[in-house]
Amino acid sequence: MTEKEKMIMGELYLAFGEELTNERQHAKEVLYEYNMLKPNEIEKRDNLLRGLFGSVGEKFYIEPPFRCDYGYNIYWGENSYANYNLTVLDCAKVVIGDDVLIGPNVNIFTAAHPISPSQRKSGLEFAKDIEIGDGSWIGGATTINPGVKIGKNVVIGSGSVVTKDIPDNTIAVGNPCRVIKTIDKE
Fold first, then answer.
1. Catalytic: which of 44, 113, 120, 181?
2. Which residue, among 80, 23, 73, 20, has the nearest Cα to 46 in the 3D structure?
3. Distance between first and last Cα of the chain
4. pLDDT value at position 77?
């Protein structure tokens, strides 16, 4: 099994082999071009992400600058938007639902490292999928940690650190992020 296959399956893997290093380099090259385009070159930016991501909706927008590790593990929903300085460490699948709003300076981290010092020193790491449900709003400066599933129609308060799953139709805030309110149906 290759290191890439191990990475995608959520197993311990070594990230600095030739295949994964080349794929990260490719993403960096694409994103360099993406981030350097003029503000009115929206179609060109969209096409760069269409070629990099696993999938994107017909209508989407990510404000530059934007950073990710690979791109192909990102599945971006219809009519979803991210403000400036989004960072996605997409060593595992990241699914952004439809009609999602992401504030500035948000971090989405699928990458993780073993607790064992000897495993960390060996260069081993692992990754866990992240999902953000349809209609959710992620406040600015939020960090979403590996393996988290944020439900549909969730509001995450600015500056939160999301370490556990958040159920549908809730407001959650803090470090660690916790549910403070259920959203009533309109």
1. 113
2. 80
3. 50
4. 98
DSSP tag of 79:
T
pLDDT on residue 153: 98
Distance of CA 103 to the CA centre of its chain: 13
Query: Furthest-apart CA pair in the chain: how many Å?
Result: 52
Bridge partners of residue 96, in order along the sequence: 76, 132
The tokens describing 129, both together, are 């999928």
**Which pTM does this prediction carry?**
0.96
Report d(CA 31, CA 166) in Å as an integer.
Answer: 30
d(CA 10, CA 86): 23
| Local structure of residue 32 (DSSP, 8 states) | H
Q: Which amino acid is at 114?
A: P
**DSSP states of 96-163 as a string?**
E-TT-EE-TT-EEE-EE--SSHHHHHTTEEEE--EEE-TT-EE-TT-EE-TT-EE-TT-EE-TT-EE-
C-alpha to C-alpha distance for 9 and 31, rounded to whole angstroms = 25
Average pLDDT over residues 69-77: 98
pLDDT, tens only, 76-99 = 999 999 999 999 999 999 999 999
Query: Is residue 26 flagged as an active site residue?
Result: no
- DSSP label at 90? -
Tokens coding 108: 């989405």
Place of tokens 């989407």: 60
